[in-house]
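Re: weekly structure request thread

Next one in the queue (148 aa):
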Amino acid sequence: MPSEVGEGSDSLENIAPIHPARQPRRRHRDPQQRPNRVTVRYNATEYEEIRRAAAARSQAVARFCATSTLNDARGLSAGDPQDRLDRAVDELAACRAQLARVGNNLNQVTFVLNASGFHRPTELDATLGLVRRAVSQVDTIAAELVGR
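Done, posted below.
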């Protein structure tokens, strides 16, 4: 499907400015496998507690354990502002991705209407305006969080 639909239409990439990439404090993927491994054992109750905590943060259990132990080793609490900031920006990125999908659907609807000879309904323009405003708000909030 086309990403743009005719004259005067905007793709979501043109709606809001792209902000510079931020540098979160995370464990980055190493080009080669990490050579050191730690084996830890938990009973069923402990493991379930860890699994739920990891799921609440949308993380794999291994990532959650590594991040938690590194934060503890560095003297950072679980409520560390940087950790909360990382999670907030991740959530905003997920919101923007969902909005991009909505915009793509709107582009497809507009394309079909134009190809069929119908004029674009005013409801579609109103919906596009709402999506534009939502994308702009997500980008503004993300820029404010990163710019602190």
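The first helix runs from residue 44 to 56. The helical segments are 44-56, 61-73, 81-115, 122-146.
Next request, please.
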